[in-house]
Design goal:
Blueprint (H helix, E strand, L loop, with lengths): L1 H41 L3 H4 L1 H47 L10
């Protein structure tokens, strides 16, 4: 009677081992396939990945962002020029208002 129970136990054990091994090998194969796919996607340049979005961002950069940056730089440089001019005028006016002592040489 024990040999029947041993045979059933061995059959169930072999069945479970084969099922688990098959599932794990399929799972590892799927993971390797996904990793290869992701590696291919990550290795693409932005233009290769989505050329429509890349060209839209590139054209926005050239037509909108660069002119705005130019305006900001022009405003900053104009402010600096005005500030320096005002500072120069204040220094010049202050030096003109200071009394000058002219030393006479005794002969």
């Amino acid at each position: 009677m024990d040999f029947i129970i041993d045979a059933i136990t061995k059959w169930i054990k072999d069945f479970l081992i084969e099922a688990i091994t098959g599932n794990l090998s399929n799972m590892f194969g799927d993971v390797n396939t996904k990793v290869a796919t992701i590696a291919g996607e990550v290795g693409k340049t932005p233009e290769q990945w989505n050329s429509g979005v890349f060209s839209m961002i590139h054209s926005l950069s050239e037509s909108v962002i660069v002119p705005i940056a130019g305006l900001v730089i022009a405003a900053i440089l104009s402010y600096e020029l005005i500030h320096r001019e005002q500072t120069w005028k204040q220094q010049t006016t202050a030096s003109l208002l200071q009394p000058r002592v002219i030393a006479h040489r005794a002969k």
